[in-house]
Design goal:
Amidase signature (AS) enzymes; 2 domains; globular; binds glutamine
Length: 487
């Protein structure tokens, strides 16, 4: 008989245990649901907990194992999904009033792939409305709190998914990252968080924010768990025209390669803004990789600092177009009015929150006749400069290291009334969304207040495996440090 605390939290260990019949999926699920019962009230990671559906699925997985079948690489792994990913017949809200109780008629490709791999979907997680924000305070259903300190934000916009893993409600979760929404909350909650190469993971069924920037990726307890999950969800999807025609990413086989000979770039003209505690961790990360045999090289990315400005034209421009479909006719809630135009207006006025309205107005302005070239057009040129800078940097370096977030988790309410301060959270994450390159945050010790710090590893497009190789080395270093301090 195994005791509850014999149940591992890592997806790799859970799935192995379940496949070999050492653990039951039902037992793993119960353990996670018990933690949800205990702490969800104070954390609010979920918009919806799917306890019954998850129990049914876990029983199915267990009976497959009993029948000698292999349920897949994520057998019995409890997974949480950001609530902007479509789940058939299950409400998908984007944490917005406007979607009401809309139930999608189909599953997102990532959801199908997770289920086919034996995962158990445990719930839909809270987010900043339509993924616009960096603290999960912009949710129409109330904020999510950081499990490490509930007076702090979990980051955003995938704050619910980050918190769900950090609080061990789920073993892994999925988020979406348009400007940093996986990496920043991962950093603030002390989990691994990955934004893969644009096009590596299907966006079919991800409710679009900025279509040229959006990517789905995992949150996990370990680099290996993130690799496993990303291997499952990546790979070509003919139903997404921006999906790269390639087989699934191969990541896990590279994790033990070490850092010897790896060229690790330090961006000498990185925009300032990182607090001293975060900067100290970043410096330590360079030292750790150097000690493991990496070569540290200086690179320049002069346009990196313009990323934020370009993003806040391009992302709202795309959002203003994407969100035009929420008009009270096709999806969700409707406010009735005497004629169609008034109905559109009343529905959108009532249904969208303040930040979403701000983005729609910014984007509409940036695209309007007479301004399009001056704003949107110039932002696209900056986007090209950033991609060129990265390409030049990657001629000298295999990966780059930066902070994931400029600071540790801030207090709930701290930046809620100052959109610009909130936008600055994304300084280090946005450029790789603009270039389409992969980026991930790796937990790397703590900073002020004993709160988690994440180091960001960046790599060129389709070099996700090299990024994971460096991340695995950082994780190994941290484990050694922690073991050292326990002795
Ligand atoms: N915080 C950024 C924004 O508000 C990024 C959001 C995201 O990546 N979805 O747009």
């Amino acid at each position: 008989m195994s005791e509850p605390n014999d149940i591992p939290k890592q997806a790799t260990l859970i799935s192995e245990g379940v496949r070999y019949g050492i653990l039951s999926a039902a037992q793993v699920l119960d353990e996670h649901l018990a933690r949800v019962d205990e702490r969800e009230g104070e954390i609010h990671a979920f918009n919806l907990v799917l306890a019954d559906e998850a129990r049914e699925r876990a029983a199915e997985i267990d009976s497959m194992v009993a029948d000698g079948l292999n349920p897949g690489p994520l057998a019995g792994v409890p997974v949480a999904l950001k609530d902007n990913m479509c789940t058939r017949g299950i409400p998908t809200t984007c944490s917005s009033k406007i979607l009401g109780d809309w139930k999608p008629p189909y599953d997102a490709t990532v959801v199908t792939r997770l289920r086919d791999a034996g995962a158990v979907v445990i719930g839909k997680t809270n987010l900043d409305e339509f993924a616009m924000g960096s603290s999960t305070e912009n949710s129409a259903f109330g904020p999510t709190k950081n499990p490490h300190d509930t007076s702090r934000v979990p980051g955003g916009s995938s704050g619910g998914s980050a918190a769900a893993v950090a609080a061990e409600f789920a073993s892994v979760s999925l988020g979406s990252d348009t400007g940093g929404s996986i990496r920043q909350p991962a950093a603030l909650c002390g989990t691994v968080g990955v934004k893969p190469t644009y096009g590596a993971v299907s966006r079919l069924g991800l409710i679009a924010f900025g279509s040229s920037l959006d990517q789905i990726g995992p949150f996990a307890h370990t680099v290996d768990d993130a690799a496993l999950t990303l291997e499952v969800i990546s790979g070509h999807d003919p139903a997404d025209s921006t999906s790269i025609e390639r087989p699934p990413l191969e990541l896990r086989s590279k994790l033990l390669m070490g850092a010897a000979g790896l060229r690790v770039g330090r961006i000498t003209d990185l925009p300032s803004g990182a607090s001293p505690d975060v900067q100290a961790r970043l410096d330590e990360a360079f030292e750790a990789l150097a000690a493991a045999g990496a070569e540290i090289v200086d690179v320049e990315c002069p346009a990196f600092g313009y990323g934020l400005t370009a993003y806040y034209l391009i992302a709202p421009a795309e959002a203003s177009s994407n969100l035009a479909r929420f008009d009270g006719v096709r999806f969700g809630s409707r406010v009735t009015a005497p004629d169609t135009n008034q109905m559109y207006m009343a529905t959108r006025t009532d249904g969208f929150g303040a930040e979403v309205k701000r983005r729609i107005m910014l984007g509409t302005y940036a695209l309007s006749a007479g301004y399009q070239e001056a704003y949107y057009g110039r932002a696209q040129k900056v986007r090209r400069l950033i991609a060129n800078d990265f390409a030049a940097a990657y001629a000298k370096a295999d990966v780059l290291l930066t902070p994931a977030s400029p600071t540790v988790a801030f207090e709930v309410g701290d930046k809620a009334s100052d959109p610009l301060a909130m936008y600055l959270c994304d300084t280090y994450t946005i450029p790789s969304n603009l270039s389409g390159d992969p980026g991930m945050s790796v937990p790397f010790g703590t900073g002020d207040g004993g709160l988690p710090v994440g180091v960001q590893v960046l790599a060129p497009a389709l070099e996700d495996h090299t990024m994971f190789r460096a991340a695995a080395e950082l994780e190994r270093y941290m484990q050694t440090q922690q073991e050292g301090s326990i002795q």
